[in-house]
Every structure is written in structure tokens, then in C-alpha cells.
Amino acid sequence: MRVLLFTVFGLTLFGLAFSHHGNEEEHLLDSLLDAYVKRDDDTTEKCINNYIDNLFKKFLEKVRSVLQEHEPYPIPDLGTKQIKDKGYQVKIELTNIKEYTASYFEINCLKSSVFRLTEEFNITFPVLHLEGDHKTNGIVLGKKVNGDGEFNVSFTNLILWGKAYAHINLNGTVQIKQLTLDYAFETVTGKATGLKVKGWKETQINNVLNRFIKQYFSDNERLVSDTIADESVKEINSLLKGMSLIQLIEWIKHFISPSKRLV
């Protein structure tokens, strides 16, 4: 999911780049610059925004093919997280995380604003499956829990929507300034091996785990969304650090078609 998030959140930075790879597109870019100066040509703005949105969809289709080729896709380790909720106080370390079925995403909406350097998005994952290793210890419903082993979490009909805000610095480098993110899902289930709770069987442990996962993602939507957004912005800006718009254009061209130049 983080790979797709990076793609979507970075899209607003790529708008002008996509508008500049062919004679017809050069006229669009000229119109854009002229309209940007005048700020009074709504028709030109809508035309170019629609053009960029269509190119974004093609870009996401390329991302889909990359995800399919490399699935399962590895996710950076999340480190140790401390979770406090109703009846739960647990420290969890998640490593060796792999993401499955991320390429099955459906694009519900993409909406650009090249003048404001923003990109709105709404994307559905019919199924999103994560697997990895865990180390866990803490208190669950008044009982001590600890152990290590494997875990998996599966979402159905996970919908992500939000808006990315880009910024071009005075030195010409580009960065993500802000990202807003929200989500909703139909179901979420999970399972973990190696967990030990005195007096509980594995079935009981996983039943409690499933209730905890659903409760956590339902009750802490704002916290989860903001955490993912903040971490994503840091990762994106780290990757973009020092990149000018021209360098970004060249990266996009190579990503879409490594064997030929889109000029």
C-alpha cells in the first residue's frame, strides 16, 4: 500500500512534467503557462487538468504492472509500536512485512489542480493482505500476552481518499507540503502465531486479536490516517530531496518507458 500511496501522493508534482512530451503537449504547456499568468481562463485550466488526470491514470496502470511483477512487495520494517486502547496496552514490533494484492486497486477518482499543485484521490483495494513477523508483549483484557511468530492481516474493500499538496521551493526543488488521508473498510481480519496468554487456547487468542484489530482501526481512524500520512510525506520528501522539476521529469519518463525517451 505504501508504494501506491507514494505514487498517488507524488502525482501532483508530476503534472507539469506529463504536460511536456510531444508537439501537441507543448502547446498545452504554453497554454497552461499563459493561463497561469492571466488566471482568468477557466476553459484552459479544465482542459489541462483533465489531460493530466488521464495521464495519471496511465501512470497508475504502469504502477499496477510493476506491483504485479514484484508481488509480494516488501514494506520497510515499522519498528516497535506501542498501542494503548480500551483494555489493551501492547508493544508490537513488525518486521519482514510483505504486501499482497495491492495491484488489484481500483481508481475511483483523481482530480488535479495544476494552479494549486494539488491532487485529490479516491482508490479502492477490494482485498489487501499483509504478512510478516511479530514480537509482542503487553496486557490484553487484564491478561499478560507475549510471544513472537508470524502474523497476517487482510482488509476487504479498503477505500483510501485524500488530498496531496505540493510545493516548489525557491531553489527549484519540489516537495510534498501536506497530505490529508482518510480510509474506510468493509472487514478486517488477522491471525498471529506464537502468542501466549495464560489459560487461553490459540483459538481464543486469535478471536480476541480479531476483535482488537477491528476495534483499533475503527476507533482510531484519525490517528492511523495521520500517522500514515506523516510517515509517507517524510519518505516521499526524502526521496525527492534535492530533485529539481527537470530531474523529476526525467525520472518519470524513464519509469513509464525505460527503453525510449518521451520527448
Give a concise summary.
The protein is an alpha+beta fold and 263 residues long.
Walk me through what this model shows.
The structure is a single chain. The chain is an alpha+beta fold and 263 residues long. It has one domain (2-256): Bactericidal permeability-increasing protein, domain 1 (Super Roll), CATH 3.15.10. Helix content is 41%, strand content 38%. It is built from seven helices and nine strands. Strands 1, 2, 3, 4, 5, 6, 7, 8 and 9 form a nine-stranded antiparallel sheet that branches. A hairpin with a 2-residue loop joins strand 2 (79-85) and strand 3 (88-100). Helix 3 packs across helix 4 (42-70). The longest helix is centred in the first third of the chain and has 29 residues, at 42-70.
What layout of secondary structure does this protein have?
Blueprint: H1 2-10, H2 15-18, H3 23-38, H4 42-70, E1 73-75, E2 79-85, E3 88-100, E4 106-113, E5 118-140, E6 143-168, E7 174-184, E8 187-192, E9 195-197, H5 202-219, H6 221-240, H7 245-256
Antiparallel strand pairs: 1-3, 2-3, 3-5, 4-5, 5-6, 6-7, 6-8, 6-9
Helix pairs in contact: 1-6, 3-4
